[in-house]
């Protein structure tokens, strides 16, 4: 790992730049995972609401018929 950092440093990257880039990459991955989680939860809730509405409609039809 140290050799890798030294090779990057000869190209013009300092160790602080590399650490900063790694930290930003971690934050980006965390942000994208949270965003994906929110989208999944939203669609899951949306499907649950649709199912509940269908069930309510079905129960209302049964009540009106009976």
Major β-sheet, in short? none
Number of strands: 0
Shape: rod-shaped
**String of helices and strands:** HH
Strand-pairing-aware structural class:
mainly alpha
Low-confidence stretches: none
Rg computed from alpha carbons, rounded to a whole number of angstroms: 26 Å
Helix share, percent: over 70%
Helix tally?
2
Concise structural overview:
This protein has 2 helices and no strands. It is mostly helical. The protein is rod-shaped and about 85 Å long.
What does this structure look like?
This protein has 66 residues and is mainly alpha-helical. It is 92% helix and 0% strand.
Describe the protein's topology.
Layout (H helix, E strand, L loop, with lengths): L1 H10 L3 H51 L1
Q: What are the key terms here?
A:
92% helix
């Amino acid at each position: 790992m140290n050799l890798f950092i030294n090779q990057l440093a000869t190209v013009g990257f300092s160790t602080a730049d590399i650490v900063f880039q790694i930290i930003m990459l971690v934050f980006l991955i965390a942000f994208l995972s949270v965003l994906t989680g929110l989208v999944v939860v939203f669609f899951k809730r949306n499907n649950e609401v649709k199912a509940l509405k269908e069930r309510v409609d079905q129960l209302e039809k049964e009540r009106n018929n009976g």
